[in-house]
């Protein structure tokens, strides 16, 4: 007679119900009806920011609810199959129940991650900037490798990505790059990448084939839906420079001065855009990125003021090394915060970041729970 798995099935059912409560799925079903009505309004896209916010939230909630509904249906099917397997002594069906339970546990783990993406801006889109650090041309090449990694990750998830600016190195790679990633919880996921990334490899630019250590800084800020309304930037605070768009090796890819660089004089913040076809479009895109960065600076300022009230900063943030990617003398990617590591470096560089992001989100959740316990 085949073994029953009723207890395990009941445990997974209970776990799904608890996650439904934690995620407030009942309220989200009500919100979904509201969003469908908003999405059907003929004038929705008169305001592109509002249209994008509605469709992004709609997609996120639909994905969450669909995943929970599929899991509930899968558990129903497995419970019926488990009963039949036990009654008929069908070992093959019993094995199918075991395999199905493993799949359900994996899906519940993924659904559980949604409870960890509950920060103020986790559901927003993200703007990612990458800056080459120490390491010369190798660091610039590393910055370009990181850009490819994140764009591939976004593509794998079905997210949209738009590159605003690339500053190419004289010999190879990128001095810096800025791009936006749009999709459900984009900032929540990519916020785990903020910090310094270290690469160790045999330099392809060294004639003696010596090992080289390179660094690049990844900066991630959320795209606030109402940032244009909230952030007012006086024209006298801006210096706007125009120049010709350039490609690899500094070659000009545009015969007109359409690229735009904006410097915010009070803070020294510099943004640029050369991706659009006209100077006007590039200026509008650069100004949007500037407003996002100024909003983040203001948020950081408020956080620093709170840290002072608490007696100082609570953890090491901007500029701290978060992850090492080693290609020689062995193959290893190790996150120094979560301590997650994998030997499949090429998969990570091809955009296979989910397990690294997952591990860091879970570490953050544990830290938050411990802090609440200690309070």
Can you give a write-up of this model?
The chain has about 375 residues and is an alpha+beta fold. The protein has 2 domains: about 5-115, Release factor (Methane Monooxygenase Hydroxylase, Chain G, domain 1, Up-down Bundle), CATH 1.20.58; about 125-320, Alpha-Beta Plaits. About 50% of the residues lie in helices and about 20% in strands. It has helices at about 5-20, 25-40, 50-90, 90-115, 135-155, 185-190, 225-230, 280-310, 345-350, 355-375, and strands at about 125-130, 160-170, 175-180, 195-200, 210-225, 240-245, 260-265, 270-275, 320-325, 330-335, 340. An 8-stranded mixed beta sheet has the order 2-3-1-5-4-9-10-11, with helices on both faces. α1 (about 5-20) runs antiparallel to α3, α1 packs parallel to α4 and α3 (about 50-90) runs antiparallel to α4 (about 90-115). The longest helix has about 40 residues, at about 50-90.
Helix content: 40-55%
| CATH third-level topology of the largest domain | Alpha-Beta Plaits
Mean pLDDT across residues: 86
Poorly predicted tracts of residues: 309-319
Distance between the termini: 52 Å
- Evaluate the radius of gyration: 24 Å
Per DSSP, the total helix count is 10
**Major sheet attributes:** 8 strands, mixed
Q: In the CATH hierarchy, what is the architecture of the largest domain at level 2?
A: 2-Layer Sandwich
Overall shape: it is globular
Element-by-element helix/strand order: HHHHEHEEHEEHEEEHEEEHH
Just give the CATH class of the largest domain.
Alpha Beta
Structural class given helices, strands, pairing? alpha+beta
